[in-house]
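User: New here, any thoughts?
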Amino acid sequence: MAYFISYKKYVTKTVTRDLSLGETNATELATIGGVTYVSIPDGAVLPSDQPAEIAGTITPVTLTPELAQKLIDANLYLQHLDAAGPSEAAWAATEKARLGII
């Protein structure tokens, strides 16, 4: 199972600061209303040296059914998993579990 965080990207005309994911195998799921949501595998820890411009915006997130649906609606890959037919059901369930979108 995964856990979730959100953060706000820092973007100017010349600079973009994103979350440093390191070797976590984390997956950026979607940006909704200026907030970016990330799925992080259990046991994985984000690098502590996050860009100063975003460090204060990193927040743990509880995945509610409503938020899960918003993430699915905003991410084509998640939409594909959500619409998987019988021949892809096992694969889709495994991917959803890996990302924590169950």
